[in-house]
Write a structure and sequence with these properties.
Elements: E1 14-17, E2 37-42, H1 48-51, E3 60-66, E4 78-79, E5 90-91, E6 104-118, E7 124-131, E8 140-146, H2 149-152, E9 171-174, H3 176-183, H4 187-202, E10 218-223, E11 226-232, E12 237-245
Parallel strand pairs: 9-12
Antiparallel strand pairs: 1-2, 1-8, 2-7, 3-6, 3-8, 4-5, 6-7, 10-11, 11-12
Length: 249
Amino acid sequence: MNTSSSRFSISSIGAVSSPYKEKFAIPRQPGLVTAAKGYIELVSDIDSKSMVEGLAGYSHIWVLFMFHQNLAHGWKAKVKPPRLGGNKKVGVLATRSTFRPNGIGMSVLPVEKVESITLKNNQVQTRIYVSGLDLLDGTPVVDIKPYIPYSDSLQGAQAGFAEQAPEAKLSVNFSAEAQAILQTQQQSESQELAVLIEQVLAQDPRPAYRQNKPDDNTYGMRLYNYNITWQCSSLTQVQVLNITPVTAV
């Protein structure tokens, strides 16, 4: 058996448009925040319309992507997964750590719709709309495969230390200032943003070593075009302090 390393060249076939504009607060697995919606836009120099023919017949897809913001930081053979409290090390290949030998990630996502539009310059813009995102805005996508229930969902499979989905840890409430900002938006947009914020914060996006401990720090995250500040008011509750629209540059 030849164990010498080989090199391969991979080009992205598209990019993700996501509500998550920064890495902090992105859920650690897909599907935990169902209100997170976005799309994958395929690159314009491929026959994207032909490539997605028949894809709308599947309810879910596997999305293979690059952890592009982590590649320059390298990787380690052992890491500290959050599900073990961020204190115990295990082999990187026994985790879904973002710091991997080749920086490749994968997520299974529901397909909301598939759309191809011919623009005025005759280029075709193809988008695959998905939900339950756990991907950073701008993430390069290197492949998409249909989710096949009979082969991809295996009865009796074991999941090591991640046997069960994590439960929502925190209840979320909004300050008067945050509620006032929500009320200035259209009702549908306001409701969608509020649900997204609640689902993201209920998962407790703080580092694992800070969870389940008294914490008077103020945290911030960016969702869509809003900066959200929040604080854990107790071990079980988080308060959204403010929601500030991002000023376009």
